[in-house]
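Thought: the user wants the 3D structure for the chain below. I'll pass the sequence to the structure tool as-is, report back what it returns, then summarize two notable features.
Action: structure_tool
Action Input:
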Amino acid sequence: MVSRTNKFRGRSRYHGRGKKAGRGAGKRGGRGNAGLNKHKVMTRIKYMPRHWGMHGFNRDPSLRIRHNTCNVSELAGLVGDGDSIDLAEHGIDKLLGSGQITSAIHVTAEHASAKAIAKVEAAGGSVTVEDGEEFGEWEEE
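Observation:
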């Protein structure tokens, strides 16, 4: 059986595609984002209204606070000997409340979420927050 290309050899100038359709990306008006300010401008306005420009904002890096965190579920693996742990010795500065804890552990951390404190205390342990602030707690004046 003869292939489509061989069928048109010598017989047809454009191989059944019309004059411009067979040249590169001619039929679709260019590749990718070509022509978004010219012949594809209505497509851009209708389907891509926020395509160009900057949106939103970035906070200054000096205002961002990134904590090295540990979940309550990971405490049992960090304790080792005894029943107390200082998270600063492990390079962790915030305790979060994801997971379960079954043993009574006394934890010292720089920051701790309210959920983490509740879970540790429910298991019979305690949490000492060094800076005196607890995440999620508001002081009434």
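Final Answer: Structure generated. Residues 114-122 form the longest helix (9 residues). The first strand starts at residue 69 and ends at 71.
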